[in-house]
Please model this.
Amino acid sequence: MPASLTTFTNRILQRAAASLIVLALAGCSTTKDRMTTGSVPKLTKPVEEMDATELRSATDRLGQAYEKNPRDPVTGVNYANLLRMNGRDTQALAVMQQVAIANPGDRNVLAAYGKAQAAAGQFQQALDTIGRAQTPDRPDWKLISAQGAILDQMGRASDARQRYRDALDIQPNEPSILSNLGMSYVLTGDLRTAETYLRSAAGQPTADSRVRQNLALVVGLQGRFPEAEQIARRELSPQQADANVAYLRGMLSQQNSWQKLAAKDKTPGAAGGSNTN
Model:
């Protein structure tokens, strides 16, 4: 029997939120994001501002540094982060496995290893690894938020949201936590609540473009397309803005296509006269 409109809508919501939560995990490194430590190749701009060509070039340079010294924790973690941003999750996990073997007591390495496991779909292993990286006497809010994102991927929304709130107790009004909390509600289809948290996240002084892209997606999913595009373009270069809007339009057009198909399925006489209900 053809899927209902609700099924189609839920599918796009889940795909969008899951991919963005993984992105949040990838961007939440406890190692220096700008990659300027020691012998690690210096980059010309922050990773989040790079286009696809620049990301590939940076990944190649980090890969060469990793080949020369695969035991170095900073090089390994940063290389794995870039691999994940290029969609090479399996390779990123393999890199982090080797780095973790060489640095078994390094909290930063364990945290990055857990995130690589999560990106590769090894959710329970990721929770265990990140748990080993955590210190009860000085808990790291980034790791707590990462645990929440993993729990969301496992379908444990209530547990995930409690983890986000625990992280907010340590780091109030942190936009990345608020954004993950908002996307948690996207996963369960509560777009109004999601928008509330995402607007709060986007309004924080330290919010980055990924937070605003999440907000744009949720606004667009509610049918307010001009407003969504305006949010997606905010405070970005024309090239970055065009890329954000292209991504947003792609996600929303996919949802619209599914809605049209579902509506067609409901039309009397469609699919040999069958009805979805």
In short: The mean pLDDT is 80. The longest helix spans residues 238-266. The chain has two domains: 1-25+174-265, 31-139. The CA atoms of residues 12 and 255 lie 6 Å apart.
